[in-house]
Amino acid sequence: MAAQDSSGSYSISDPLIDDVVDGVVDYRGRRVRRSSKCGRWRSASFIIGVEIAERFAYYGISSNLITYLTGPLGQSTASAAENINAWSGAASMLPLIGAFVADSYLGRYRTILISSVLYVVGLGLLTLSAVIQPQDSSSSSMGRVIFFFSSLYLVAIAQGGHKPCVQAFGADQFDGTHPEESKSRSSFFNWWYFSLCLGTAFTLSILNYIQDNLNWGLGFGIPCAVMAVAFVVFLLGTKTYRYGFEENKSNPFVRVVQVYVAAARNWGATTPSVTVSKKASFLDKALAGGADGINGSRKGWKTCSTTQVEEAKALLRLVPIWVTCLIYAVVFAQSSTFFTKQGSTIDRSIGPNFQIPPATLQTFISLSIVIFLPIYDRVFIPIARKITGEPSGITMLQRIGFGMLLSLISMVVAALVEIKRLQIVKDFGLADKPSVTVPMSMWWLAPQYILFGIADVFTMVGLQEFFYDQVPDALRSLGLALYLSIFGVGSFLSSFIISIIEKATGGGGRDSWFSNNLNRAHLDYFYWLLAILSTIELAAYLYFAGSYTYNREVEHADEDVS
């Protein structure tokens, strides 16, 4: 059996010792042996099933939300886009709170249970809000809007606890220190995203049609039922899971905060000559009283351990990568808003009697991921592994950067396609006829959606693995919450940019870039702006990624010095 020695290589060890998986227990609180049936792909399959259902439910709401807001709720295109971005932003930021609760108090399993219940309740109330028919009075209509958005934000709160914990809990089923399980964990992130995209594709192809052509009550009610079934499936796997166990029960968030407090209090003190990573050396001041600080005690607020300082540094190293991915998230927000409105103006017919709902065009994203991800995992990675010697083929940051490049290209393509659409509008005299279908095939939009999907294979999955792998073990829910918060802040930024542009370009009776009549709007200008911002972002990302030191490299460097 293999065990990892101090140099990071694997050697032969006692099989009885190696059979015990460090840091985890089974549902009865017993230490887990590798030869048991706990963990690995069997357990991960239950968790992946839950995520498929959760994504089905979430995208069952978000993918077609702009149609509901501009239809039954009667909002303008710009207002609906701003509301969607605000809600998406909240849904992506709340996982920071959910991760804090999970990592500090409840644990991932209990947080998933509570969040699942809230999810089902929120979806049920959302269904009820769609079924209730308002009376003619403005007060009853306003009450319906308030009820709808209250239900919508309850779903966001539920996702805040569910999203960071489910994926971290799934990755926890594999031991990252074991050579075979480590490879499986890397593949887990690929197949995780593959599976949730299958759920998303089903949502976009079936559920959006029901919402547009049958009724919204059924369109919101089906995700509620699916989420309830998924909750039962998750419970069925309870006896097979590996649960995190730490002998040191101190709050991981408190440990990190203690480092900054201790470094500030010891600012004038001499930095001790203790072996730690060289970057962010100002945090070494937290060691000024010695490297034996007691976590969670009063002494820990003035003197911290070397482990605490390294945990704080690990989180701080993530900040430049986090910041330089925000414009990617702004671009990501457009697929469910302006791409959908763009698609609503063109010919989406298949045959003489069937027309695809505009939101269903997002299926191109999911299908491109479903097709390309197995190629990436089974063909690209083995070839790249032989060339580079990296277990994952290419590094996580290289993977993220290439996806950002594809995202930039997708914005250029989207701008060119929109220019083509506006030219057809001009040629056929449709500028003041927004209800008339523009004689342009929906296949013109396919390239920008497909590029989005392939970019996600690289950047989205790369970000998930990066933020899980590069944080301390006790903070892995927080790591995935940080990944999600990129898209939360990106959605808020998107909403802010739209609001500024709407005010700047829509005054004095002029049509803004986001006019309700898209035939007089200029989404192409907006896409060019995002392409320029993406270029600047990619340059900054490459600069910071080039100087980034992975955690395992820091650990090995420290061991070499010592």
User: Approximately how much helix is present in the residues?
Assistant: 55-70%
Mean pLDDT, to the nearest integer, reads 82
Query: Uncertain runs with pLDDT below 50, 5 residues or more?
Result: 1-17, 291-298, 553-562
For the terminal residues, how far apart are their CA atoms? 28 Å
Helix and strand element order: EEHEEHHHHHHHHEHHHHHEEEHHEHHHH
Biggest sheet statistics: 3 strands, antiparallel
Beta-strand residue fraction:
under 5%
Q: What structural category characterises the helix and strand content?
A: mainly alpha
Give the number of DSSP strands: 9
Discrete helix count: 20
Overall spatial form: globular
- How is the largest sheet built, in terms of strand order? 4-3-5
Rg over CA atoms: 25 Å
Annotation keywords:
single chain; 20 helices; 3-stranded antiparallel beta sheet; NRT1/PTR; disordered N terminus; globular; mainly alpha; 562 residues; Protein NRT1/ PTR FAMILY 5.10-like; low-affinity nitrate transmembrane transporter activity; two-stranded antiparallel ribbon
How would you describe the overall organization of this protein?
It is built from 20 helices and nine strands. It has 562 residues and is mainly α. Helix 2 runs antiparallel to helix 9 and helix 6 packs antiparallel against helix 7. The radius of gyration is 25 Å and the shape is globular.
Secondary structure blueprint with pairings:
Layout: E1 2-4, E2 10-12, H1 15-18, E3 20-25, E4 31-33, H2 40-62, H3 65-70, H4 77-93, H5 95-106, H6 108-131, H7 138-171, H8 179-213, H9 216-236, E5 243-244, H10 252-265, H11 306-317, H12 319-323, H13 326-332, H14 338-343, E6 346-347, E7 349-350, E8 354-355, H15 363-388, H16 396-427, E9 438-441, H17 446-469, H18 476-505, H19 523-546, H20 551-561
Parallel strand pairs: 6-9
Antiparallel strand pairs: 1-2, 3-4, 3-5, 7-8
